[in-house]
Design goal:
There is one protein chain. With about 270 residues, this protein is α/β, with parallel strands linked by helices. It has ten helices and seven strands. Helix 3 runs parallel beside helix 4. It starts with a strand and ends in an 11-residue tail after the last helix. About 35% of the residues are buried.
Length: about 270
């Protein structure tokens, strides 16, 4: 298993605390992390700030444990939404939105969960792990999200901090697993303190507790996260336009082809 990723390192106002989180992630073997900026409309946090650049955070990026390359730092914007109008910001031409690599949405009701899965241009849909889900997860919504390349995020830190939240995490995770069968799941930390971070193999083991198979648990901290990052890159680059180029034929191939299939030339 290679290329471990944590897509949820919370943005902390104190740079030193944020640096320590990223350094710990690199020491644990994560090759990529995403610093998460949360906009919560219930808390009146509506301003989209420009994400901090890696150069502002580190003069020299920390090296990934066991590898010679430095850790890669991405930016993520998460919207906590309780009303459809809150999603309009994703269509905004705000100068700061373009700086984010990953878009995530945390829907607070069933209607918005369906909207997030079926229409919103996002990369991640967050599932609550600190309280009982206020809505039922429906198969049609999840199926559309999977077809669109959208992934579902579960956080593991609440499960190791508090027994009550552990029950909610396991219960909500199992509800999701019954529908998606372990597909398109991402396990992230949302750790605000370094001591809460766990290594990728430990996180994969926690995935068993959430109902994931061994292969799906490993993918949830590696290949699935890479797919989320690629989904974000595709959205930023011409909305997923694919460029194809015809491979030129060799003279031998051209001679062996029927006349009707040979390329026409213009004199």
């Amino acid at each position: 298993m290679a290329g471990f990723v944590d897509l949820n390192i919370p943005h902390l106002p104190e740079k030193e605390a944020l640096r320590k989180l990223v350094e710990t992630a690199a020491h644990l073997g994560y090759s990529t992390v995403a610093i998460n900026y949360v906009v919560d409309y219930e808390e009146k946090k509506k301003e989209i700030v420009k994400p901090i650049s890696p150069a502002e955070l580190f003069p020299t990026l920390p090296r990934v444990q066991g590898k010679s390359k430095p850790i890669k730092i991405l930016s993520r914007l998460t919207l906590v939404v309780s009303d459809p109008s809150h999603c309009n910001i994703l269509r905004s031409s705000s100068t700061n939105i373009k700086f984010y690599d990953i878009f995530a949405v945390f829907p607070k009701n069933g209607k918005l969960f369906h909207v997030a899965c079926t229409t919103l241009d996002v990369d991640l849909v967050c599932i609550s792990v600190t309280e009982k889900l206020p809505f039922y997860i429906k198969r049609p919504s999840v199926s559309v999200a999977i077809d669109r390349g959208i992934y579902f995020e579960l956080l593991y830190v609440p499960a190791i901090k508090d027994s009550t939240m552990r029950r909610y995490t396991v219960s909500n995770a199992l509800s999701l697993m019954q529908i998606c069968r372990g597909k398109n799941i991402v396990l992230s930390s949302a750790a605000e303190r370094s001591l809460h971070l766990r290594g990728p193999y430990d996180v994969a083991n926690l995935g068993f507790l959430f109902g994931l198979s061994e292969s799906n648990a490993k993918a949830a901290v590696s290949t699935n996260c890479r797919a989320v990052i690629l989904h974000g890159e595709t959205r930023k680059t011409a909305s997923g336009v694919v460029y194809t180029k015809k491979k030129p034929r060799t003279p031998e191939e051209d001679e062996s082809s029927p006349v009707s299939k040979k390329a026409k030339t213009t004199l």
